[in-house]
Amino acid sequence: MASTAALNLLTDHPALYEARFPAPDRLAARWTEDCLRRHRAGARVLDIGCGTGRDAARLHAVGRRVTGADLSEAMLAHARAHHPGPVYVHADLRGFDLGRGEFDAVVCLDSSLLYCHTNAQLDAFLSSCRQALAPGGLLVAEMRNGAYFLGRTDLLDAPAVDTFTWQGSVYRSTTTLTVDRTAQLLRRTRVWTVDDGPEPVEQRSVWRLLFPQELRHLLGAHGFDVLELHDGPGPRTEPPWREGLLPGATADADRLHVVARLSPAR
């Protein structure tokens, strides 16, 4: 089996990524725009961890002045070619400098924040957000919820198998999740096979597991006031968010959503 420590089949092939995760209704961007409107955010938005640029482009289309930032040059190239409108820049969310007070909101979707594996990396992310935001600016984030794994094993008990077809080839993934409780990390091993393709490819990914009160504490320590912290409805919940739905009052399900405002005093 091939080892791909420096390669990721999906993020290194953005068109394949979009085929695997189609988002024709841009639900994540629509949910984000709803958060920004309800909390009266200004027009300047940084989408950190923007991926292929689909959500950034949707926010641009409704009138936001959007900068999309990502660590993957392949994703950025795809975004510029296929989802124009925003300015796309290379940046690492675990510590970035895109100017001081340049944005009215920082958006971090699809568990991107959880690539900060250590407390130092989380501090660097929040310090970077604090620098990037104007006083009173918003941080909007959506991610897995660490609290879901307290006493639950349904996502860990058996591998998940998924199959989809792209450009005439059938792709099959077998995904296994494990929890490293000491390091507070969720580890994913995914094995890809392609019909009539090369040997199977194994990939490994890691996310930090954050708990609701832990996240509230971290945000407060960096000068943010938490406005919303809940498990849904959101763009990846079941049932998903739809127009007109307001945030819930619990933080127990498998997704976590947060909206926080940087203190005007900073």
UniProtKB/TrEMBL annotation:
Domain Methyltransferase positions: 45-137
Signal peptide residues on this chain, from the entry's feature table: none
One GO term (biological process): methylation
Gene Ontology terms, MF aspect: polyprenyldihydroxybenzoate methyltransferase activity
Keywords, sorted A to Z: Methyltransferase, Transferase
InterPro entries: Methyltransf_25, SAM-dependent_MTases_sf
Spans traversing the lipid bilayer: none
Pfam families the UniProt entry points to: Methyltransf_25
Protein name as catalogued: SAM-dependent methyltransferase
Species: Streptomyces antibioticus
Lineage: Bacteria, Bacillati, Actinomycetota, Actinomycetes, Kitasatosporales
